[in-house]
Amino acid sequence: VNAPKQREDLEMILGLARRSPLFLGVSFFEFTVSYYKTGSEMDFGIFGYGGPVASMDYFGATFDVRCLTSAPLGDGRPALAQAVAKAYGGAVDARLLCHPA
After folding, report:
1. Which of 23, 81, 87, 96 could form a disulfide with 10 if both were Cys (CB 3.0 to 4.6 A apart)?
2. CA gap 9, 84 in Å, rounded
3. What long-range pairs does 33-42 form, CB within 8 A, spacing at least 24?
4. How many CB atoms lie within 10 A of CB 33?
């Protein structure tokens, strides 16, 4: 994952979208880290999961509801969430996220 390059790519895609009525949207892989994967596969995901903030019942089974984190990638690169937000002209409001578990 190269967050600065992804930000540049996304900015280019959004520029194309503004110039074309045929462009309907963007799909970004992946919304959250897939923790069941290992190695470099852990670098994908805009957000990670923090600790549980609530629990919910789902057809008789109880599951934790976890908060989202936007931690920097392990090798010092900026958080992917921040790169995506910046491409859209915004920023991640860290007050709305939790700290990594």
Report:
1. 87
2. 10
3. 40/1
4. 19
- List residues bridging with 64 in a β-sheet: 55
pLDDT digits (tens, 9 = 90+) for 49-96: 888 999 999 999 999 999 988 866 655 556 788 878 887 888 888 888
Token pair recorded at residue 2: 């190269």
Rounded distance between C-alpha atoms, residue 72 and residue 64, angstroms = 24
Distances in Å between the Cα of 88 and the Cα atoms of 36, 81, 91, 95, 96 are 30, 11, 8, 19, 18
* This prediction's pTM: 0.68
For residue 74, the tally of other CB atoms under 10 A from its CB is: 8
| Closest C-alpha to 96, from 80, 77, 81 | 81
Q: Do residues 98 and 51 lie in contact, with contact meaning Cβ atoms separated by under 8 Å? A: yes
Residue type, 60: G
